[in-house]
Input
Amino acid sequence: MKKHVLLLLAGVMLTFASVKAQGGYQRQTPEERTKVTMEKLEALKMDETTKTKVEVIFSDYYNKQEKAFEEMRASGNKDRDAMQAKRKELSDARDLKLKEAFSAEQLKKWTEEIEPALRPQRRTQGQ
Output
């Protein structure tokens, strides 16, 4: 009996260790998302004025996005299409502001390299 309990305990500990090692899914706050985005934008070599403008743009974007999705969830509206439409509306507004802040070269690099890397990756069934 004692062996069974120890085996069970060892199995539970291994399971918790495995889950912890995988990291699990945890939603980032708008501030964390802004920080990650700004780190990736370092490749654009922005001056301090532009960097400040861009940080405000992303902070505003992520806060509005979080607020909109929380409102949808609270109202019980889990319509995926409505969420995607709202995301598109917010990102289009963000992109208009970025066009004003970035140079043509920076905007091209943002659109082709950095923005696609920021999109959440979908997990496949096997992961």
Observations:
- The two ends are 35 Å apart (CA to CA).
- The chain has a mean pLDDT of 82.
- The CA atoms of residues 22 and 124 lie 15 Å apart.
